[in-house]
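Ticket 4471: requesting a sanity check on a complex prediction with adenosine-5'-diphosphate. Repro inputs:
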Amino acid sequence: MTPLDADWLAAHPLPEPPEDTDKNSRGRVLVAGGSEIVPGALRLTGEAALRAGAGKLQLATVERVAPHLGVLVPEAAIFGLPANDAGELGDAAGERLCGYLDRCDTLVLGPGTGAEAPGTAILAPVVAEPRGALSLVLDAAMIHAAADLATAIHAHQGRIVLTPHPGEMAGLMGCEDMRIAQDPAGIAQEAARRFNATVVLKGPETWIACPGEGLLRYPGGGPGLATGGSGDVLAGIIGGLMSRGAEPRAAAAWGVWLHGEAGKRLAARIGPLGFLARELPGEIPGLLAHP
Ligand SMILES: NC(=O)C1=CN([C@@H]2O[C@H](COP(=O)(O)OP(=O)(O)OC[C@H]3O[C@@H](n4cnc5c(N)ncnc54)[C@H](OP(=O)(O)O)[C@@H]3O)[C@@H](O)[C@H]2O)[C@@H](O)CC1
Ligand SMILES: Nc1ncnc2c1ncn2[C@@H]1O[C@H](COP(=O)(O)OP(=O)(O)O)[C@@H](O)[C@H]1O
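Returned structure tokens:
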């Protein structure tokens, strides 16, 4: 196990865009998810992706929320997706989403999705897409859905990061929560092998596992990060870094570190508890400039 610290980051620098880059070549992120119950999740994820350096942002959410999201995030293009009776993404959302994949380099799928979203129906057409260059970050209900699609995810030609919290990890691996608490390092590595993906097991401390690579451990950015929407921000940072060209393991590691250090900075300035998830993204450019 290797500590995720300043030495590791210095040895694994992020790719920098050339001076003459344009917004399309700097990285196009599509974030898909949200619901009528959690309409703001994509704002958190999308802003985080832009703050991590993505050039272009697109958000896709349930049709009734989409116009409001456009007002909240004027930097983004907004697409509506079909919803179900629970106000979550519906069965047809995955097929519709596939029609937008040509416009993005990285898809962050899942923030703001809950138990009523038909995750497997949404995720299956996305992971069946033969687009080798697509980078994918899976979060929230799409982690649970991934459990049913291990073979397809393993065979996916793209670059995949899964960001489960312990409850989602138990769903992903079909095991008891207790097993995650007893051996987080082992289960993160097992998941990485099963899905052939980078796995970020979140919690007070975070484990990053990647097939064929050493395990990383981040000791945590403080309990203020245990706040609604904090994980949505992390998924967005990782997606933004991947769209800039970072490899999945480096994007996950830098993302976890930036998220944690942003929490520490807010804790020092505002107080250890009570800062908002939406305040985290604003810390990222400064941290990237002076890690
Ligand atoms: N709901 C909201 O107010 C907001 C939601 N937002 C976004 O919506 C998405 C879904 O969020 P969500 O809250 O609906 O689902 P989620 O957190 O997975 O809880 C479901 C169940 O999982 C479990 N569980 C959770 N953490 C656990 C842990 N560490 N360790 C173990 N188990 C854990 C827990 O089960 P329990 O322990 O209660 O049995 C819980 O009942 C997500 O992207 C989120 O960021 C934000 O954008 C804005 C505010
Ligand atoms: N006690 C804690 N100390 C440090 N970091 C924490 C703590 N609790 C949660 N976190 C971090 O906060 C984030 C919470 O993500 P998640 O559980 O998905 O929340 P949400 O669903 O509300 O966005 C993760 O990055 C996790 O590592």
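Notes from triage: The mean pLDDT is 95. Leaving this open until the requester confirms.
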